[in-house]
Specification:
The chain has 419 residues and is α/β, with parallel strands linked by helices. It folds into two domains: 340 residues, Leucine Aminopeptidase, subunit E, domain 1; 57 residues. The chain contains 13 helices and twelve strands. The strands form three sheets. Strands 1-2-7-10-4-11-12-3 form an eight-stranded mixed β-sheet, sandwiched between helices. A two-stranded antiparallel ribbon has the order 5-6. A two-stranded antiparallel sheet has the order 8-9. α11 packs across α12.
Length: 419
């Protein structure tokens, strides 16, 4: 697996200083005058001396540019577009068909944030993975199960993403082809709320778009998983679920009452793993898992967990650092995946990637009527299912899940659309 990472340290970042605007303007005017003179000279040379001499002009121009290092060539970087957030506002609101609800949320969160944001993508610590090739996928299928895996490597909580644990990883249930999902349009589910509460994420989206850098959870919907990780994101706001509930009756004029800014001294800094699950919404007919879809999910989780662990180890300069990743019902909402399957897949990835402790959030209590995602299922049934004596490698676990699907519909995708 290949990852690319940028680390915000004085030794590793090429911080191009912004040129003085006056200097840029003078340089631009000078370059324009030179260009006009060059055009006139070029026409004269071509007319009187012929085309062979004319071809010497671009060569001479290139030579002079290198020798003189014409400052005006750098004028693209003359102004910081984020100082007054005009460009960011245009990017997240005016460029997209943002609904009134999301426009209001963005203005109350991202665009009202007083925290200085990075002005270059190099200032953000991130890792973008590439999809596995056929050889790597076959190796993943044959990867041995760690039979010495301890239950302490799997933790559970009934709480849901309150980001109490600083500097730990939180899975973003990402859209496959749009960073932030529908935060710029009309989406208000897990990924969008994360982008609202962490203003640095829309800023990251803007900078990646501006730099034309690939930073995406997959090549296209339901194929080519390329999860990415971002370190050191700060939660600045808490959004009450009343705003994004499907049956919400809260008017946009009242949104400010449901959005709380976190005190600057108490803002948690965490890490994000963007992982896109298989989306069943547009699939027609009977929905059934295949070996390829299970492998798609396992590849995604293993790629993300490995990239995050390696990125943290590199950041901390500790090759044996162990990391904690928080997740939950990944891909089990609008995407329609099985709760049992997605739990087992993530636990299996945590088993296959050394140095990982996984925390499954939002588990139901044992006495609650939700047998698909209870504390007992995660800590006992799913855990023991992976370590079953008949499972020597990842491929064995996948085969058993496919068999389970034939016997129990809770191991199959949800047959109806929606949440």
């Amino acid at each position: 697996m290949k990852t690319s990472a940028c680390f915000p340290s004085s030794s590793s970042i090429n911080r191009s200083p912004l040129l003085h605007p006056t200097f840029c303007a003078v340089s631009t005017i000078a370059l324009g005058i030179i260009a006009l003179i060059s055009i006139g000279a070029g026409v004269g040379i071509y007319h009187y001396l012929g085309p062979s001499y004319f071809l010497m002009i671009p060569a001479a121009t290139a030579f002079l540019s290198l020798v003189l290092k014409v400052p005006a060539l750098k004028m693209t970087f003359c102004t910081s577009t984020l100082d007054n957030k005009t460009s960011l506002e245009k990017f997240v609101i005016k460029k997209w068909k943002t609904t009134d609800c999301n426009r209001t949320i963005l203005k109350l969160t991202t665009l009202s944030s007083k925290t200085p944001q990075p002005t270059q993508l190099n200032d953000i610590t991130y890792s973008q993975t590439t999809e596995m090739n056929e050889k790597q996928l076959n190796e993943l299928l044959k990867k041995k199960i760690d039979k010495n895996w301890k239950k302490k490597r799997v933790d559970i909580t009934t709480k849901w993403y309150n980001y109490e644990k600083a500097n730990e990883g939180y899975v973003n249930f990402a859209n496959g082809t749009e960073r932030g999902g529908g935060y710029k349009t009309n989406g208000r589910v897990q990924e969008e709320i994360m982008f609202f509460e962490f203003p640095c994420l829309p800023n990251l989206d803007y900078l990646a778009d501006k730099a034309n850098v690939y930073l995406q959870a997959s090549r296209k919907t339901n194929s080519g998983p390329t999860p990415y990780c971002v370190l050191g994101i700060k939660r600045e706001f808490v959004i009450d679920s009343a705003i994004y509930s499907r049956n919400s009756n809260v008017r946009t004029s009242e949104f400010s009452r449901y959005i709380q800014e976190i005190d600057e001294d108490n803002r948690p800094t965490v890490d994000m793993l963007a992982m896109a699950a298989f989306d069943w919404k547009k699939m027609r007919g009977e929905k059934k898992y295949t070996k390829e879809i299970h492998l798609f999910h396992l590849e995604t989780a293993v790629q993300a967990f490995t990239a995050y662990r390696d990125l943290k180890r590199q950041e901390q300069e500790d090759p044996s650092l162990e990391v904690t990743i928080h997740s939950g019902l990944w891909g089990c909402g609008a995407f329609g995946n099985s709760r049992k399957v997605m739990t087992v897949i993530q636990l299996l990835a945590a088993n296959l990637v050394p140095g990982i402790t996984i925390v499954m959030e939002g588990c139901q209590k044992k006495d609650e009527n939700d047998s698909d995602y209870t504390e007992n299922f995660v800590k006992n049934e799913a855990f023991n299912f992976i370590l079953d004596d008949g499972h020597a490698c990842a491929e064995d676990v996948i085969s058993s899940m496919l068999n389970k699907q034939e016997e129990d519909p809770s191991w199959a995708p949800r047959q109806h659309s929606g949440c």
